[in-house]
Amino acid sequence: MHIEGAIPWEMFESRFPGEFPIDPDFRQPEFRYDNFAQFESILIDHALRIIQEPDDYAEIADIVFTRHLQQNVRYVELSFHAGIIEFLNMPGQEIIAAIRSAVPPGLEVRIFLGMSRNSYSDYLGGILEDAVENWDGLYGIDLHGPEDLPTLNWMPKLWKKAQVNGRVLKAHAGEFGPAENVRWAVDKLGVKRIQHGIQASTDEDLLKMLAHQGVVFDLCPISNYKLRVFDRWEEYPLHQFMNAGISCTISTDDPMSFGNCLNDEYRVLQQNMGFSVHELAQFAKNGFQVADLSDSSRMESIEEIDQLVRLAEGHPNAR
């Protein structure tokens, strides 16, 4: 989840009474963006109305995390964008502290610093270097933004430095860009967590390599549909990824922009793509398998999911 894209809509209503519609078109289930540029423009314009100081992140996170608990979510990985640091001159460490201050009991949260392929500016370059080496509370880094921007030498160097300093590595790849972007992220950045990765479906050899290396795809079906990454639900390659042996998790991406929650994601997998209760449970268990949790906490959550499946099936030993 991108926290700048997860601003609760009621914050606009409360801060700017009468200025924003109660239920804008772009948050409707049937709405689809014309292109990524339209989506990005709407997201940035809205986010910058709310986010002006670190305390705004705390307020956003407080509402979002409360809703996560209401959905029975136990573990969240979120990113904030490095561009905010530069655009608003807002210290990244203060953003992390603000988000962490809102984490409630019963929810584990891990924070990533997201950066675009053109983020390594004269202003941000040194900040990014310091972040991956020294920032407390920063769990990992993620590559964001348009995939048509060039890949530059600073990326592999920074990802390697982050890895040496114990950060978890992610990259958005193969969402709008080609399958080769996924291969590059794995080979050159050393990531084991690909965000989206949809276009990898066009390269069977790549899928074999990803499965062999244990690369995980963090998928956001509603985001991919509303951004026209695919045309019809029948074309979504999740079954293909499963058959190839690639572990997939389910996430929400930008709930403000898509009007979705995590339960909505699982619902469309069942209703629009025919996934069974057992398959939905496996996606949830995949999330806990890759989560930064103790072995005991991980197994407790996986066992609870299995119990819920048995309960849904009316198993006599369910409780």
Question: What is this structure, in a nutshell?
Answer:
The protein has 319 residues and is of the alpha/beta class. It contains 15 helices and 7 strands. It has one domain (3-275): Metal-dependent hydrolases (TIM Barrel, Alpha-Beta Barrel), CATH 3.20.20.
Architecture overview:
This protein is globular. The model has no long low-confidence stretch (mean pLDDT 96). With 319 residues, it is an alpha/beta fold. It has a single domain (3-275), classed as TIM Barrel, CATH 3.20.20.140. It contains 15 helices and 7 strands. It has a 7-stranded parallel beta sheet with strand order 1-2-3-4-5-6-7. Helix 6 (124-134) links the parallel strand 2 and strand 3. The longest helix has 18 residues, at 295-312.
Strand-and-helix sequence, N→C?
HHHEHHEHEHEHEHEHHEHHHH
CATH-assigned fold name: TIM Barrel
As for the number of domains, it is 1
Radius of gyration: 19 Å
Q: What proportion strand?
A: 5-15%
What would the principal axes of the Cα set say about the shape? Answer: globular
CATH architecture classification:
Alpha-Beta Barrel
Ends: how far apart? 32 Å
Low-confidence stretches: none
Give the strand order, joined by hyphens, for the main sheet: 1-2-3-4-5-6-7
What structural class do the secondary elements suggest? alpha/beta
Would you tell me the overall average pLDDT?
96
CATH class: Alpha Beta
Report the count of strand segments: 7
Q: Name the CATH superfamily assignment.
A: Metal-dependent hydrolases
Helix content: 40-55%
Number of helices: 15
What profile does the largest beta sheet have? 7 strands, parallel
